[in-house]
Write a structure and sequence with these properties.
The structure is a single chain. With about 300 residues, the protein is an alpha+beta fold. It has one domain: Beta-lactamase (3-Layer(aba) Sandwich). Helix content is about 35%, strand content about 20%. It contains 11 helices and 12 strands. The strands form 3 sheets. Strands 1, 2, 3, 8, 9, 10, 11 and 12 form an 8-stranded antiparallel beta sheet that branches. Strands 4-7 form a two-stranded antiparallel ribbon. Strand 1 and strand 2 form a beta hairpin. Helix 2 crosses helix 5. InterPro entries: Asparaginase_II.
Length: about 300
């Protein structure tokens, strides 16, 4: 992996730890503003492509109000509002929780997980249940099988892959399986950036509807106090989506785009990398230093290297 140091964990002026990875920032015209590490590196984009998957679903007949469409492109925190919305999507096509085939889990959000208490893990509480509900609804609309909707060769998943390929201008050479059980497509860092910039600038009403829904209902895309939601609430026009194993995408309506992947999968430098990357593109956002503590006192910080 031709990665580079993206962030440093500094204690008393000494770099104690480093986070390596890949980052690319594109200007509004598509030119490269900054490339750190080899942007041809192939990665699993994880949940950062949910808006693209949601677009494929809408293109194949999915009809949801914006609030529910945002949930279909989400990694939700698992609040009661999120779970009720998942049931709304399922109920709109005559299904219930039993149709979901995502993994059993507890809520992703910290507060939501505490509130969940000692209830057993469930499929609807899993953070990808909104996407799975939307996938099931799309299958029902088309008369496609719902028993094997996660198969790589299912018409739904073929449509999702083709939507990504068209936006990225890159063929998918390997399909794996995401943590939730859905197909996962291997793509280059640069290809992911092209895809996110393309869907952001697209005049296709489907692409516009999906991103507008996410921007309008950022609390459905993630949840209260989550970085994704907070940033979209604070920066007008920003679209942002995180993914497991430390993948992040962000874009502005004029086409400025940021993509990064932290090689060790750590979320620890996420906040500093998001703010530093957006600042590099001239996008201002509220930011407080990520402190490193010693004996309860601030003696250092986590800092971006660019």
């Amino acid at each position: 992996m031709k990665d580079v140091v993206l962030a440093e964990y500094v204690r008393s002026g000494v770099v104690e730890s480093q986070h390596r990875g890949f980052l690319i920032a594109l200007n509004a015209d598509g030119s490269t503003n900054l490339e750190l590490g080899d942007s041809a590196q192939l990665i699993f984009p994880r949940s950062t492509i949910k808006s693209i998957q949601a677009s494929a679903m809408v293109r194949n007949g999915l009809q949801l109000e914006p609030r529910l469409l945002a949930l279909g492109a989400s990694s939700h925190s698992g609040s009661p509002e999120h779970l009720a919305a998942v049931r709304e999507i399922l109920g709109s096509v005559g299904l219930d929780d039993s149709a979901l085939q995502c993994m059993l889990d507890r809520p992703l959000g910290e507060a939501e997980r505490r509130a969940f208490g000692d209830q057993p893990a469930s499929r609807i509480a899993m953070n990808c249940s909104g996407k799975h509900a939307a996938m099931l609804a799309t299958c029902v609309k088309n008369g496609w099988s719902i028993e094997n909707y996660l198969d790589h060769n299912h018409p739904l998943q073929v449509a999702c892959r083709e939507e990504l390929e068209n936006l990225a201008g890159e063929k998918i050479t390997l399909t794996s399986t995401d943590g939730c059980g859905a197909p996962l497509f291997l793509i280059s860092v640069a290809g992911l950036a092209r895809a996110i910039r393309a869907i952001t600038l697209s005049k296709d009403r489907i692409h516009s509807a999906v991103l507008d829904a996410c921007r309008t209902f950022p609390e459905m895309v993630a949840g209260k106090d989550r970085l994704t939601t907070v940033m979209m609430q604070e920066v007008p026009g920003l679209y942002m989506k995180d993914g497991a194993e430390a993948v992040e995408i962000a874009s502005m309506p004029d086409g400025r785009t940021l993509v990064f992947k932290v090689s060790d999968g750590s979320l620890r430098p996420f906040r500093v990398l998001v703010h530093a990357g957006l600042k590099r593109l001239g996008i201002e956002s509220k930011y407080e230093t990520e402190p490193v503590l010693g004996g309860g006192k601030v003696i250092g910080e986590i800092r971006a290297t660019f």
